[in-house]
Amino acid sequence: MLADRLSFASGSSVPEVVVRPEEYTGPLRNPLKGLRAGDPREADKLPYASLARCYIRWSEIEGSASDGVERIKQFCNERWAKMPAINTKVIPRVYLDWPPNGHFWPADLPKGDYFSANFSRRLIGLIEKLGEAWDNDPRVAYVETGLIGLWGEQHDPAPTPELQKAMGDAFTASFRNKLLMNRYPGDFTDYRFGIYWDSFGHKEEAPLHIALLESPRLASRWKIAPMGGETAYDWGTPLGKNPTDALAHYTDTIVRLIRELHWNHLGWLSEYDQQNQVAAANAARVQEALGYRFVLEEVCYPPRIDPGTSFRVSMLVRNTGSSPFYYPWLVDLSLLDPHTRAVRWRSELAGCDLRSILPDAGATQIEGEFAYPPELPRGHYLLAFAIVDPAGKKPSARFATTHYFRGGRHPVGWIGAGMPAMRRPLPAFDDPAQDQTLAYEA
Questions:
Q1: For residue range 133-184, what is the model confidence (pLDDT) as tens digits?
Q2: Which of 65, 335, 350, 429 has its CA 20 to 30 A from that of 404?
Q3: How far apart are CA 259 and CA 290, in angstroms?
Q4: CATH topology of domain 4-25+293-434
Q5: CA distances for 296 relative to 22, 43, 293, 411, 432, angstroms
Q6: 140 phi/psi in degrees, rounded to 5
Q7: What is the pTM of this model?
């Protein structure tokens, strides 16, 4: 139910409505976080896969040094065509060697020649092309630097310090907008990359990985770069024998690690048996813990706005997840038609930076001052918020509140334009977890 009341700001005679929306208690398929798919083509079969990793053979996107960036774009357009429509973004990784499937080197590079000067030149050239293809592509979430070693996991062989510098400099110069990740927390020490831990929680890697992730150099890295990867069930001592077993018996440990290390996304674990009720219930717990989760605690706004004046709206938001939101997306304020729910006016909350709302940091106040829109007809409207993807400026991420309309907007109360506001309940809400209509534009 809508809990609102009239109050007066300190030193002001102008009343305002104070709304404390009810928190939504289930998992949400929000973008840029969560249980990710291992293949973009499988993302729509998984309940939470707003992320999908895409493995790419070097030879698929470049056969020789003369190939241009258009070949990379054509490959991605074919593989990622449906991503915007299902509100899913991709984490690409290019690799050369994939046992036992084979070697996928371009025709003009000798297989296994990781450390020659010619390879380094070609590597830098490819990274520059990847940056041109991906750095402004809204389908790309984060980029795993990959390229070196088996499966692009930067081992066997590991990149030498010289190769790390060549790669790190090239990736940093070529990617100004997308965030980057490397495999091992002990590598690329001069670069502000996130980590893709592809054996998350493994007994063989956990002691050293956790120690490095909690070391002074990396202890705060999660605030600016994503921590992700996957749980692996094909070697060593993972948490569980397979994804379903892991969720049936190790969820407490998995969630604890997610919270302690501020983890943003995990793959492979997402391939649990969706018909197993215990695994499905525990997957929901994992999804809630991964990444950001914005709880809309309070909204304040005037019950009436009039032509020729301005009005102020503020909101308190708490992040109860494990990581920040990593990109400067926008919070949108709108006035909705009370009958059709169509947007009659909208504006962005200037100065709002979702990246600053950190977990375990208490509630953050977001506010904006707006001029009365001269084109707005006199009448009653629903005041609503939305988090919009810059790619098309459509609602995309959801606040964890029951105040939700299908399509991604969160109504909080009535407001009168040129007349007093109505005092009646809001229309019936929709379930945000059941809404599959959200999309962005490529």
A1: 999 999 999 999 999 999 999 999 999 999 999 999 999 999 999 999 999 9
A2: 350
A3: 8
A4: Immunoglobulin-like (2.60.40)
A5: 8, 28, 10, 11, 14
A6: -95, 125
A7: 0.96
